[in-house]
């Protein structure tokens, strides 16, 4: 730096200061002269080298201070953008569906980053706008539907495309007179669409590299939210399809079981007539036909009850009954062929609120299982407590392996030893029985040891007196 006077013809600025002398010290920031400090004196040659040295020192300190201010402003802007990005991500966390994701993203980005935003979904070569949020300086552009064939190569390569790099016609169509960028969106490894960021020229006031990184980061969070939403919607669709399939299956099962029961009842009736009038030599064959027909009737009853429990059409026609009489009638019916069931009950009534038709289904299942899985006596005991009544059905049969006790009340659950021994069964009866007992407000449990027998216990709430 050297002294310059107002008479110097090379410096119009100094001449504008009038008579006298002046000294100028540039402010150099990051290698560029951005400002200057000027001292003006009324007299010619009013400064010396010491003054110039001091001014140079002052200029250096001021330039350093300005550089620090610029760094601070830059860091503050970066922090502000990072906070805005965090708020965008936080808003996306609460979204579930694709529509919610794209709408929340567009609105939040326009509010936080102060740029217009539109999200497009691509189907083959056509891009359809799914969400848009415009700002006052960016009212044109972002059409509802565009031909994206010219964009697909860039989108497939994952490139961020600045508006300035587009052909003039396409730039005006997408951005109008504004500037911005297009960032691809991918889902499951394929191009799902793209997000268009737009604002008036000069609005992106930070460095190009930073702008690219920031917009890519925004788009990557949108991709994550989109992938989660698309996955959620697929699960919902599969759940609805599965539910509809199950409903159809249950309706079909109930219809077939109901239609089977009618002919089976007729066959069973004719078997009873034949057993009464046929020669003894035919009784064994007729009894086999009759027992298998009865088995099919029970399976049809189980199928109807199973379909009703699954379809939510399980209703009860209750009345207060003496549990001793209900259980006693079932025991009497099962003791007709062989007197293997011993029945014990208290002397006083045991009032419970039951649907006798539904509950007899439970008792029949338990009694038939006890007779089927054992050869000896079956004990049925009714007891009464202060708040609950209980029915215990005990046999001394093959029992259930301890590790499989939790499976016997599941749908189609059967003990492995029963399958090994070839004992017939569908695995539906106990599942349906549990459902019926639970609808009555009770519970059913089992205690068993393999090779020693089982005890099934039903607990029901006591009702008011009969």
Tags for this entry?
single chain, 466 residues, alpha+beta, Beta-Lactamase, 4 domains, 6-stranded antiparallel β-sheet, 5-stranded mixed β-sheet, 11 helices, 47% helix, elongated, disordered N terminus
In short:
This protein has eleven helices and 16 strands.
Overview of this structure, please?
The protein is α+β, with helices and mostly antiparallel strands. It folds into 4 domains: 4-84, GAF domain (Beta-Lactamase); 91-237, GAF domain (Beta-Lactamase, 2-Layer Sandwich), CATH 3.30.450.40; 242-294, no CATH class; 319-461, Heat Shock Protein 90. It has 11 helices and 16 strands. The protein has helices at 12-15, 49-93, 98-112, 152-156, 168-175, 208-277, 283-311, 323-334, 356-372, 416-420, 429-439; strands at 4-5, 21-29, 32-41, 116-123, 126-133, 145-147, 161-162, 179-187, 190-199, 319-322, 341-344, 351-354, 378-384, 388-395, 443-449, 453-461. The strands form 4 sheets. It has a 6-stranded antiparallel sheet. A 5-stranded mixed sheet has the order 11-13-14-16-15, covered by helices on one side. A hairpin with a 2-residue loop joins strand 4 and strand 5. It is elongated and about 145 Å long.
């Amino acid at each position: 730096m050297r002294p310059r006077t107002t008479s110097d013809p090379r410096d119009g600025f100094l001449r504008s200061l009038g008579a006298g002398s002046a000294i100028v010290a540039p402010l150099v920031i990051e290698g560029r002269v951005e400002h200057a400090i000027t001292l003006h004196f009324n007299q010619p040659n009013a400064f010396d080298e010491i003054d110039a040295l001091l001014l140079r020192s002052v200029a250096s300190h001021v330039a350093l201070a300005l550089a620090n201010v610029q760094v601070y402003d830059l860091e503050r802007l970066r922090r502000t953008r990072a906070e805005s990005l965090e708020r965008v991500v936080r808003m996306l966390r609460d979204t579930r569906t694709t529509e919610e994701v794209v709408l929340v993203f567009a609105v939040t980005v326009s509010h936080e980053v102060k740029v217009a935003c539109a999200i497009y979904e691509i189907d083959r070569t056509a891009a359809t706008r799914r969400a848009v949020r415009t700002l006052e300086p960016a009212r044109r552009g972002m059409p509802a539907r565009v031909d994206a064939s010219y964009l697909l190569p860039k989108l497939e390569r994952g490139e961020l495309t600045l508006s300035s790099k587009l052909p003039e016609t396409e730039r005006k169509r997408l951005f109008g007179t504004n500037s911005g960028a297009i960032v691809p969106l991918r889902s499951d490894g394929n191009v799902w669409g793209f997000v268009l960021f737009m604002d008036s020229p000069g609005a992106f006031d930070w460095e190009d590299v930073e702008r690219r990184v920031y917009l890519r980061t925004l788009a990557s969070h949108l991709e994550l939210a989109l992938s989660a939403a698309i996955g959620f919607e697929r699960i919902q669709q599969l759940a609805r399809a599965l539910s509809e399939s199950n409903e159809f299956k249950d309706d079909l099962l109930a219809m077939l079981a109901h239609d089977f029961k009618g002919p089976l009842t007729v066959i069973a009736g004719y078997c009873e007539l034949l057993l009464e009038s046929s020669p003894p030599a035919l009784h064994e064959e007729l009894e086999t036909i009759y027992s298998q027909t009865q088995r099919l009737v029970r399976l049809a009853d189980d199928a109807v009850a199973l379909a009703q429990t699954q379809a939510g059409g399980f209703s009860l026609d209750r009345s207060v009954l003496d549990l001793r009489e209900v259980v006693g009638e079932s025991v009497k019916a099962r003791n007709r062929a062989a007197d293997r069931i011993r029945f014990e009950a208290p002397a006083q009534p045991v009032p419970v609120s039951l649907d006798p038709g539904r509950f007899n289904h439970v008792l029949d299942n338990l009694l038939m299982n006890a007779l089927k899985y054992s050869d000896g006596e079956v004990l049925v005991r009714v007891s009464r407590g202060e708040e609950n009544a209980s029915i215990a059905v005990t046999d001394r049969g093959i029992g259930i392996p301890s590790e499989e006790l939790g499976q016997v009340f599941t749908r189609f659950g059967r003990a492995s030893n029963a399958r090994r021994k070839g004992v017939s069964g569908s695995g539906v009866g106990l599942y349906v029985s549990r459902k019926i007992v639970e609808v009555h407000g009770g519970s059913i449990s089992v205690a068993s040891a393999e090779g020693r027998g089982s005890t099934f216990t039903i607990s029901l709430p006591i009702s008011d007196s009969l």
